[in-house]
């Protein structure tokens, strides 16, 4: 049973969504948003089963922890410990967009020894006013490259006569200190253009949620020549697939394109 940490009152869960899947510790972990009466919280789940290649044979998720101390969303785990600790990116909800749900414009970094208790390590990056990424949030788990952690995030332009437009960009984070940004795309790398991205339950949305690379080297770094596949939600109605290479997206971060 979930209870409010301040009042002790039971928490009612309304929705569980925005799952981000991370291979970690020889298993699969999932971070989800959880809507409660007290706001949105992040939960960490462990997938029961032996398969790391996919969900074949995985029949349930076991709750590891839920952060009840702040309203936040867009949580994603790094695929390995850094400095001996688990790390997570998330986006605190500190403002409301129009009449919609709470949202935010900054991604922060947290650390944990056990995936249960989390320590705030500070801000990583913020949205850019009057640009394509005024509001931001983390997308799929970061990918380890020789140049840094490659991370895809979503950005929201809110200044088009009240119509929010969800897009995607990329950022390169330091391998040993992911709180440090090494490079960031100036322009988006993906935007709604197709009819099925512009019309649907929530129009004008591309929302990155999954990322795979075709090849890694012997030390687990993504090869720059590797194909990169980005899976994204389109208008909250369909699922899209965008294809690039690791080298191309890294170059866009480093050059600020």
Number of helices: 2
Total number of beta strands = 18
Mean pLDDT: 89
Derived structural class:
mainly beta
CATH superfamily: Glycosyl hydrolase domain, family 43
InterPro entries: Glyco_hydro_beta-prop_sf (IPR023296), Mannoside_phosphorylase (IPR007184)
Keywords: Glycosyltransferase, Transferase
Family: Belongs to the glycosyl hydrolase 130 family.
GO molecular function, one term: glycosyltransferase activity
Explained architecture:
By secondary structure, the chain is mainly β. The chain has one domain: 5 Propeller (Tachylectin-2, Chain A), CATH 2.115.10. It is 5% helix and 50% strand. It has 2 helices and 18 strands. The chain has helices spanning 195-198, 246-255; strands spanning 13-24, 27-36, 39-47, 61-67, 72-77, 86-92, 95-96, 102-103, 106-112, 119-126, 135-138, 143-145, 148-160, 163-173, 181-184, 206-213, 227-234, 238-245. Strands 11, 12, 13, 14 and 15 form a 5-stranded antiparallel beta sheet that branches. A 4-stranded antiparallel beta sheet has the order 1-2-3-4, with no helix packed on it. The protein is globular and about 50 Å long. The mean pLDDT is 89. This is Glycosidase. One of its GO terms (molecular function) is glycosyltransferase activity. Belongs to the glycosyl hydrolase 130 family. Keywords: Glycosyltransferase, Transferase. InterPro entries: Glyco_hydro_beta-prop_sf (IPR023296), Mannoside_phosphorylase (IPR007184).
């Amino acid at each position: 049973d979930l209870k409010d940490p301040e009042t002790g009152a039971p928490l009612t869960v309304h929705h569980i969504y925005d799952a981000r899947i991370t291979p970690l510790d020889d298993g699969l972990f999932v971070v989800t948003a959880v809507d409660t009466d007290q706001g949105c919280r992040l939960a960490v789940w462990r997938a029961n089963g032996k398969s790391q290649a996919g969900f074949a044979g995985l029949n349930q998720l076991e709750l590891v922890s839920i952060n009840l101390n702040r309203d936040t969303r867009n949580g994603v785990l790094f695929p390995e410990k850094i400095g001996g600790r688990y790390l997570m990116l998330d986006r605190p909800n500190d403002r409301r967009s129009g009449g919609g749900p709470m949202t935010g414009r900054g991604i922060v970094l947290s650390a944990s020894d056990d995936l249960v208790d989390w320590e705030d390590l500070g801000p990583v990056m913020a949205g850019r006013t009057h640009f394509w990424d005024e509001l931001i949030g983390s997308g799929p788990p970061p990918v380890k490259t020789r140049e840094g952690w490659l991370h895809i995030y979503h950005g929201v332009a809110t200044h088009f006569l009240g119509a929010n437009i969800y897009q995607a960009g990329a950022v390169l984070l330091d391998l040993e200190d992911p709180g440090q940004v090494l490079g960031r795309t100036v322009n988006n790398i993906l935007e709604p253009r197709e009819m099925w991205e512009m019309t649907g339950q929530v129009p004008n949305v591309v929302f990155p949620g999954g990322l795979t690379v075709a090849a890694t080297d012997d030390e687990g770094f993504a090869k720059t020549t590797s194909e990169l596949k980005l899976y994204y939600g389109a208008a909250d109605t369909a699922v899209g697939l965008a294809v690039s290479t690791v080298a191309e997206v890294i170059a866009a971060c480093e050059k600020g394109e």
